């Protein structure tokens, strides 16, 4: 989901994706680099992203991943589900914080 | 795909390395760090590419190989499973093959779908009777139709005497054909020529086309047809054509020896009320049957309007030749197939049980796999592979077994069931059906254990210490109950058929078939034109035979099993109100010499036998006659009126009143042959009614010698006279009993097989439960548990299951028994005795099968049992 979220903002290649995830999560999330590529392939297969060889800003041949329409829809669905869950968790946790 | 991913990953590493180098790390260290971060790059590549792979194929192959290894490792199990299924599938296949060959008409004609049979239908008679049609009707059809290419007419005649050079006189089957018959049929003589129009006219009609077998066997396949001298009923005929060996006549009685031209002149050609031919029509290409039917029915309707006296109330009955020639006997085969199907079901349940039991044995393995992350689907897949392998091997073995089974069936099935076929090829239809059966059984066998075997949660692995988890056996118990139910159904069915056989063998035949030889003689009209010549012939033959030592000889026009029955309409004078004789009761008529009943040992119950030269017209009747005509009153001395039977061409006794002088016991050959009661019969003195066809009956110590003597005496008296149906009565009775014996033994065999499989199932389930509960049993024994209690503990569930199976089986039996009605004799479908016997057999066998392994449980050594895990 995170990958989709990032790709929604801008198309990226694998390495850049890792960097972005680190940056967005303020280094809280360490992406297992080894599991990124299988994950990307799975997204490709499901048609949520598409890939294209391009030249990067550092003049390197890289494979850039873009979100497809299907991917965007999927992201919408997941985000809203996640938000609902998150709201739920937050409302449960809120009173505890008050007592602090 | 793989290459792209690896290229991408290399690019990833390089970018990382450059970044690290830019941050001041040495290149070497940067490379190491980058690789560390990514992990095993090959592995990552593989994992990434795996996403794309068609996931199942390779795992299927792997599973198949694994399954094959498992089966090899456990040959006993595999052999039993494969053999059980193979026998069941093989049995079904062989029955299907024989059924397929038997019930399919053999019609080697071009465009057989264009061929129709046209009959008359008598609208005054209920039911779909096919009646012969008249020659004028044939001509109307031929001239006024719009849908046919042509219409031929044919009729089969009584048998004729064939004599002349080439062999002894024989009785042969003949048919008369219109000159266009072979062209309509699309096949004809391969040697010589077909009939032509003028062959059908008087003076030109002494021509014959003969069958290939007659030509080969009697005339040595001689190609000079002009040289064949052939006499039919003492008239000279010339042979003009010979049919090919595979010729089929395209009529119901299709095994004809000789064909003659149909007479198209004289009374039959012009009279509309003489219905003596059947029509064979060929439609124009592409004409559907309903269109042709409509066309011909319209012609029949206009005929009915034009000739109300003769054609009113008659309609055309048009059916496809395929339907016309479709052999009978489907019901019987369906029942046999049903029995075999039940066997297959039991076999499938058994193999399922085996697989489930073995699945339980591999429960530990399954749980380990589950805990290591195997999906349930994957486990089901593995089991399915195993079952598929078993099913595949079974089918291959089954095809071999089916070949044997078919041969055995062909050898033992009574000829009358087989409709004259000699071979039952395992052709595409049979193989297709077998594959269907195999797939069905595969599904049954594989799905159950696969679904059951893959259940289980990982936690079980941790707490598993050999204690039985309750409910584990539940599914197996269902399977066992199913087997018991089917076993009971089959046993009950077999019981009914065995009871029928027993009943039919108990039937009092009313005469003694042992050591009785019978031979039929048909005198032809040309050589024996009058009563005096016929009487002289039979008197001479009988006198000649009576001179021989140890022969008790007599003659009558019909002997049980060797009858040429004719009949009369019959009425008591006091009931004769002058109404039409067609409304009178009907009786069979037989013409006998004095001493006939004594020779047959067919007792005269009251009254006396004929004497030579009876002065007055007299008659003997059978018990059925007394019951039906005299309503059980004493008939001796009373008069009975006889009239000819208007419905047949054969004449019975001459019309007139006769006085009853005796009552003979009913003979029950019809009971055995057709499952019908003895018919009304009257016996006339031969001397008062000399007929052409008589059966010579000889009782002696050696029926074969007697038959030889009869043959000798007949040909000595007249070498042109053939004998037919030369047999001993006991042999004929055996033939008649054949179908009863066959169906009973077939059902008994099926039941035995099902019983055996069901018992195997019960035995296997209880032993399995004992094995599973070894530890518990050990504890019980260690604590002083009584053996009886232990037996009870391990077998109660199974016994309850057997009970349930029997209950279900009883219900199914009650329900299915009715479908056997057609095959039963004096046995009700709900025969209490067979049912009770079957229940006892099943219950006893089931209890025994449960008790044996249960007893083993009491011998469990507690020390060993407790140390087991």
Q: Average pLDDT across residues of chain B?
A: 82
Helix content bin of chain B: 40-55%
Say what oligomer this is: heterodimer
**Rg of chain B:** 39 Å
How much helix is in the residues of chain A? Answer: 55-70%
Q: How many beta strands in the DSSP annotation of chain A?
A: 3
The major sheet of chain A is characterized as: 3 strands, antiparallel
pLDDT under 50 segments of chain B (min length 5)? 464-471
Greatest contact between two chains: A-B, 19 and 24 residues
Rg of chain A (CA only): 16 Å
* Alpha-carbon distance between the two ends of chain B: 49 Å
- Total strand count of chain B, please? 26
**What is the global morphology of chain B?**
elongated
β-strand amount of chain B? 15-25%
Unreliable spans of chain A: none
Question: What is the average per-residue confidence, as pLDDT of chain A, rounded to a whole number?
Answer: 74
H-E string of chain A: HEHHEEH
Question: Could you name the key traits of this structure?
Answer:
heterodimer, A: 100 residues, alpha+beta, B: 869 residues, 6-stranded mixed barrel, elongated
Task: Give your account of this protein's structure.
- The complex is a heterodimer of chains A (100) and B (869).
- By secondary structure, chain A is an alpha+beta fold.
- Chain A contains four helices and three strands, in the order H-E-H-H-E-E-H.
- Chain A has a three-stranded antiparallel β-sheet.
- In chain A, strand 2 and strand 3 (61-67) form a beta hairpin.
- Chain A is globular.
- The N and C termini of chain A lie far apart (33 Å).
- By secondary structure, chain B is of the alpha+beta class.
- Helix content of chain B is 52%, strand content 16%.
- Chain B has 29 helices and 26 strands.
- In chain B, the strands form four sheets. In chain B, strands 1, 2, 3, 4, 5, 6, 7, 8, 9, 10, 11, 12 and 13 form a 13-stranded mixed β-sheet that branches. A six-stranded mixed β-barrel of chain B has the order 18-19-24-21-23-22. A four-stranded antiparallel β-sheet of chain B has the order 15-25-14-26.
- The longest helix of chain B has 44 residues, at 729-772.
- Mean pLDDT of chain B is 82; it is low at 464-471.
- The interface between A and B is medium-sized, with 19 and 24 residues.
């Amino acid at each position: 989901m995170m990958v989709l979220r990032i790709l929604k903002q801008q198309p990226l290649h694998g390495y850049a994706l890792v960097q972005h995830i680190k940056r967005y999560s303020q280094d809280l999330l360490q992406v297992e680099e080894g599991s990124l590529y299988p994950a990307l392939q799975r997204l490709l297969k499901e048609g949520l992203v598409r890939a294209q060889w391009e030249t990067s800003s550092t003049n390197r041949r890289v494979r850039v991943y873009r979100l497809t329409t299907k991917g965007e829809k999927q992201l919408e669905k997941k985000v809203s589900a996640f938000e609902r869950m998150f709201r739920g968790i937050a409302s449960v946790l809120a009173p505890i914080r008050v007592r602090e | 795909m793989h290459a792209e991913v690896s290229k991408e990953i290399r690019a990833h590493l390089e970018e990382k390395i450059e970044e690290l180098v830019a941050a001041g790390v040495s290149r070497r260290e940067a490379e190491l760090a980058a690789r560390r971060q990514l992990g095993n790059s090959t592995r990552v590549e593989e994992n990434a590419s795996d996403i794309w792979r068609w996931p199942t194929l390779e795992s299927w192959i792997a599973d198949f190989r694994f399954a094959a290894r498992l089966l090899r490792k456990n040959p006993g199990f595999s052999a039993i499973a494969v053999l059980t299924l193979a026998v069941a599938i093989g049995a079904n296949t062989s029955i299907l093959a024989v059924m397929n060959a038997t019930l399919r008409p053999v019609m080697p004609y071009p465009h057989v779908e264009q061929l129709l049979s046209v009959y008359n239908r008598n609208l005054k008679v209920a039911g779909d009777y096919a009646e012969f049609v008249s020659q004028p009707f044939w001509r109307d059809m031929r001239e006024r139709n719009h849908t046919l290419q042509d219409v031929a007419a044919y009729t089969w005649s009584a048998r004729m005497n064939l004599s002349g050079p080439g062999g002894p006189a024989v009785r042969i089957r003949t048919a008369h054909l219109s000159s266009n018959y072979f062209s309509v049929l699309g096949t004809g003589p391969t040697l010589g020529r077909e009939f032509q129009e003028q062959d059908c006219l008087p003076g030109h009609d002494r021509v014959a086309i003969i069958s290939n077998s007659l030509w080969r066997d009697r005339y040595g396949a001689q190609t000079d047809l002009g040289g064949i001298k052939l006499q039919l009923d003492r008239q000279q005929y010339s042979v003009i054509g010979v049919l090919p060996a595979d010729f089929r006549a395209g009529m119901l009685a299709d095994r004809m020896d000789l064909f003659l031209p149909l007479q198209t002149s004289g009374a039959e050609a012009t009279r509309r009320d003489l219905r003596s031919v059947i029509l064979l029509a060929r439609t124009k290409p592409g004409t559907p049957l309903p269109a042709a039917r409509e066309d011909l029915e319209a012609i029949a309707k206009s005929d009915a309007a034009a000739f109300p006296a003769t054609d009113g109330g008659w309609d055309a009955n048009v059916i496809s030749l395929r339907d016309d020639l479709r052999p009978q006997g489907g019901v019987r085969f369906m029942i046999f197939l049903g029995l075999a199907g039940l066997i297959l079901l039991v076999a499938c349940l058994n193999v399922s049980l085996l697989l489930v039991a073995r699945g339980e044995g591999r429960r530990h393995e399954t749980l380990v796999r589950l805990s290591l992350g195997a999906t349930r689907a994957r486990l089901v897949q593995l089991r399915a592979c195993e079952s598929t392998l078993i099913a595949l091997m079974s089918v291959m073995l089954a095809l071999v077994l089916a070949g044997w089974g078919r041969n055995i069936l062909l050898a033992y099935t009574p000829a009358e069931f087989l409709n004259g076929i000699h071979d039952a090829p395992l052709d595409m239809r049979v193989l297709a059906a077998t594959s269907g059966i195999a797939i069905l059984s595969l599904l049954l066998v594989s799905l159950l254990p696969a679904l059951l075997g893959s259940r289980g949660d990982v936690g079980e692995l941790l707490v598993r210490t050999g204690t039985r988890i309750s409910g584990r056996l539940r599914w197996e118990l269902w399977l066992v109950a199913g087997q018991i139910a089917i076993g009971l159904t089959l046993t009950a069915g077999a019981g009914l058929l065995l009871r029928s056989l027993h009943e039919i063998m108990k039937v009092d035949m009313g005469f003694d078939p042992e050591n009785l030889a019978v031979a039929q003689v048909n005198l032809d009209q040309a050589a024996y034109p009058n009563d005096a010549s016929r009487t002289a012939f039979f008197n001479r033959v009988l006198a000649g035979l009576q001179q021989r030592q140890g022969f008790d000889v007599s003659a009558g026009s019909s002997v049980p099993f060797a009858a040429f029955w004719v009949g009369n309409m019959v009425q008591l004078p006091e009931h004769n109100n002058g109404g039409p004789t067609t409304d009178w009761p009907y009786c069979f008529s037989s013409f006998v010499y004095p001493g006939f009943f004594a020779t047959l040992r067919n007792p005269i119950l009251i009254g006396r036998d004929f004497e030579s030269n009876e002065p007055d017209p007299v008659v003997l009747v059978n018990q059925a006659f007394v019951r039906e005509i005299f309503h059980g009153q004493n008939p001796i001395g009373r008069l009975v009126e006889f009239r000819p039977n208007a419905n047949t061409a054969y004449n019975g006794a001459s019309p007139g009143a006769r006085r009853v002088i005796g009552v003979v016991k009913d003979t029950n050959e019809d009971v055995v042959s057709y499952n019908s009661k003895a018919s009304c019969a009257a016996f006339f003195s031969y001397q008062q009614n000399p007929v052409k066809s008589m059966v010579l009956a000889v009782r002696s110590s050696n029926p074969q010698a007697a038959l030889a003597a009869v043959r000798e005496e007949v040909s000595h008296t007249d070498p042109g006279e053939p004998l037919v149906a030369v047999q001993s009565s006991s042999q004929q009775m055996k033939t008649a009993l054949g179908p009863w014996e066959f169906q009973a033994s077939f059902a008994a065999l099926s039941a035995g097989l099902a019983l055996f499989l069901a018992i195997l199932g019960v035995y296997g389930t209880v032993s399995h439960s004992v094995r599973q509960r070894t530890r518990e049993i050990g504890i019980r024994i260690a604590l002083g548990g009584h053996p009886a209690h232990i037996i009870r503990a391990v077998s109660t569930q199974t016994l309850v299951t057997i009970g349930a199976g029997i209950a279900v089986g009883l219900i199914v039996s009650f329900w299915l028994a009715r479908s056997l009605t057609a095959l039963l004799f004096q046995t009700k479908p709900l025969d209490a005795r067979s049912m009770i016997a079957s229940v006892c057999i099943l219950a006893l066998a089931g209890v025994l099968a449960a008790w044996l392994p249960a007893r083993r449980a009491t011998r469990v050594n507690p020390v060993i049992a407790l140390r087991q895990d």
